[in-house]
């Protein structure tokens, strides 16, 4: 990357893909580097979609290698016969662009940042009816604003990392990092906070986090999670939500202090029920059928 920047500073902006290949012929750039430049949006100004460039990456690489060979051998490139015309066009057919989330995922993959926006912006219309806080607003809270300590709040965020460990008392604690379009924040959750999830935590997924704000001196703000739910819009999720059913990937009967086990009937596909109860075992498919279709 530094070599490309030096060439640009010395010879001016790249006017086209061919101009890039001609000027950077002596920079050690391989196919993987070209792919990263495409995915990060570095070639967006050349008039092609990123999908089209990815589909034509071999053409770009071959052009670059051809310029290299001709330069080292003192030959005239077939491309250069136009007197170094920077408008010379490679044979690349444009194509429909990747969808918004694909673009963002490629940007995150290659730069560790979202450049064109944030995945949560896609949910903007859905978030209008939910009273949620923005991470950016939380991070702006100053040390003297102690009134915000222990304040209850809700966030709609993307999980970026999670790591669980067992405490000396035997409890499982999970360290999490979340982000939204305005910033990043860390959080802590014990098992009861994760009980309503229907599957284990997964980085890159969107969650609704309910908890309280922890403000400690000399430490950045942190969320102490009371409940974490997946922000889900599948057909089944909508049907289940309408029934008032709470889903959990942790068997409620394994933790008798779990609020899910205190009221109402429990339907589960946990094999452990066969050991200590006479309850009937259902598969996941049967459970969905029972709840959403009203079967007995």
Biggest sheet statistics: 5 strands, mixed, barrel
Provide the structure class: alpha+beta
Please tell me how large the radius of gyration is.
27 Å
Strand content: 15-25%
Number of helical segments with 4 or more residues: 12
Gross morphology is elongated
- Straight-line N-to-C gap: 64 Å
Q: What is the number of E strands? A: 5
Identify the strand order in the major beta sheet: 1-2-3-5-4
Low-confidence stretches: 76-88, 274-278
Oligomer: single chain
Key phrases:
five-stranded mixed barrel, 12 helices, alpha+beta, 296 residues
Please characterize this protein's 3D structure.
This protein has 12 helices and 5 strands. By secondary structure, it is of the alpha+beta class. It has helices spanning 2-11, 17-23, 31-40, 50-55, 57-73, 100-111, 124-127, 135-139, 191-194, 235-243, 273-276, 284-293, and strands spanning 152-166, 172-180, 183-190, 206-214, 222-230.
Topology diagram in text:
Blueprint: H1 2-11, H2 17-23, H3 31-40, H4 50-55, H5 57-73, H6 100-111, H7 124-127, H8 135-139, E1 152-166, E2 172-180, E3 183-190, H9 191-194, E4 206-214, E5 222-230, H10 235-243, H11 273-276, H12 284-293
Parallel strand pairs: 3-5
Antiparallel strand pairs: 1-2, 1-4, 2-3, 4-5
Helix pairs in contact: 2-5, 3-6
Can you summarize this structure?
The chain has helices at residues 2-11, 17-23, 31-40, 50-55, 57-73, 100-111, 124-127, 135-139, 191-194, 235-243, 273-276, 284-293, and strands at residues 152-166, 172-180, 183-190, 206-214, 222-230. It is α+β, with helices and mostly antiparallel strands and 296 residues long.
């Amino acid at each position: 990357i530094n070599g490309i920047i030096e060439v640009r500073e010395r010879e001016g902006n790249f006017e086209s893909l061919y101009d890039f290949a001609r000027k950077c012929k002596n920079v050690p750039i391989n196919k993987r580097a070209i792919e990263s430049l495409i995915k990060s949006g570095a070639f967006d100004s050349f008039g092609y979609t990123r999908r089209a460039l990815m589909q034509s990456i071999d053409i770009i690489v071959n052009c670059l290698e051809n310029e290299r060979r001709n330069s080292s051998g003192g030959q005239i490139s077939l491309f250069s016969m136009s007197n170094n015309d920077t408008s010379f066009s490679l044979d690349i057919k444009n194509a429909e662009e990747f969808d918004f989330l694909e673009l963002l995922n490629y940007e995150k993959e290659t730069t560790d940042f979202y450049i064109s926006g944030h995945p949560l912006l896609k949910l903007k219309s859905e978030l209008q009816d939910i009273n949620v806080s923005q991470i950016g607003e939380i991070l702006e809270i100053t040390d003297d604003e102690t009134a915000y300590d222990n304040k209850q709040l809700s966030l709609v965020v993307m999980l970026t990392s999670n790591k669980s460990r067992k405490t000396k008392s035997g409890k499982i604690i999970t360290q999490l990092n979340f982000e939204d379009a305005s910033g990043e924040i860390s959080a802590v959750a014990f098992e009861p906070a994760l009980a309503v999830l229907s599957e284990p935590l997964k980085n890159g997924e969107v969650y609704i986090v309910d908890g309280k704000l922890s403000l400690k001196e000399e430490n950045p703000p942190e969320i102490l999670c009371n409940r974490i739910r997946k922000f889900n819009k599948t057909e089944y999720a909508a049907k289940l939500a309408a029934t008032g059913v709470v889903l959990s990937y942790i068997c409620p009967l394994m933790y008798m202090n779990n609020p899910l086990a205190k009221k109402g009937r429990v339907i589960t596909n946990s094999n452990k029920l066969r050991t200590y109860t006479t309850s009937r075992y259902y598969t996941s498919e049967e459970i969905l059928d029972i709840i959403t279709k009203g079967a007995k």
